[in-house]
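Dig into this one:

. . .
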Amino acid sequence: MTRLLRDTMEDWADEARVPHDLADRALRRRSWKPVGAAVLVAAMIAVVAVFVSGQREPTAVVRPAAGVTLPARPSPAPSDVRADTENSPPAKLIAAGRMAVSAYYTTSREVVSENEERVRRAWSLYDPRTDGYERTPYAWVDVAPGLQVAAVLEGDLTSTRLGVLDMNTRQILTWIDLEHPVASVAWSPDGTRILATAYSRYPDLLEGRGDQAGPRMDGSPRTGYYLIDVQEGTTDYHELPPLPGGLMTDDPITNMNGRQDLGWSLDGKLIWGPTSTAPDRVFYTLAGERQEAPEGQRYVRRSPISATSPDGRLVLGGDGLPTEITEAATGKVAGRQKVLQLHAWADDGNVIALGCAGKCPDEFDNGLVLVSVDGSKVVQLAANGESNREGSWRAVLTLR
């Protein structure tokens, strides 16, 4: 789940924001006519303690089977439209077609030193018992496809303890103790494995104070990642250094951000890391070796979500006002939408997007909408709000 990338410099510490001049740039770029807006239960039940070596090509280390049985995904999956336009952040489930807002987070800054701040996230998770959202105490949350289980990190910064939470009972199915601290988790597309990105320190640190704060220039503290098979009960660690920062390197692929979380390819056969260059991601094998981008896979920029419609015919375009959807086979424009960003396909004909309020005099006044491919139909999903202020909420979209 997931959100679209704002400009690289605005990705500092994951405080993604719509560029302040997005509307002006879009209007200058083109004219348009408005068209409508449990792995190791208790960790010590198994009598064998395993320490993964962390080499780039490690010998696979398999712990004794101590996996957990995951709840079955609903079949058929719900496909109705659910909105909450009265509350911000939302109090009731927001969903459309195949996608739902499974969680959201708000950010705040705290002073670390005279010349340093860090960004904290406060996570709220969908609660099927109330059909709303519940504030959590976790450092990171990611929901598996089907909205039955969530991966959570204990604490509020980096963590060495990962839990698998049953969203229906609110019980932890298993805790997984990790040797290396991690700062993000991501479920595989099939909802059976977890990718956890490891860091030597908390990655969301900024140099300076207030409006003058920017990314630290000493590089990302990423050290590697864990691949965790929840049902099999295996946990493997691989080293993977960060991409270079781009100031003193000849490498054409760079990333100046401290947080360089890893994600899954659409088929779950590869993993990828974000870049500050084009293309927006670099792929690796599950063992951490650089790999060519898989053919035929198109992504919403800097997101794990597919840009291709479920039927394979159409492709979501980049940020705009208007945005564009093109035909996959020909590249021909299939429709334009008076929205700021296209986030995910709800079905073959409708997209969850970020729309601006009113006539969009200020692109920071926005909210989630459901928009048709031709842009003629727009349904408000969430209340409009000021996305540029501290404490504004950011949605995580997950397949239902």
User: Anything to note?
Assistant: The two ends are 11 Å apart (CA to CA). Residues 1-65 have pLDDT under 50 and may be disordered. The CA atoms of residues 67 and 232 lie 5 Å apart. The domain at 8-37+49-399 is CATH 2.130.10 (Methylamine Dehydrogenase; Chain H).
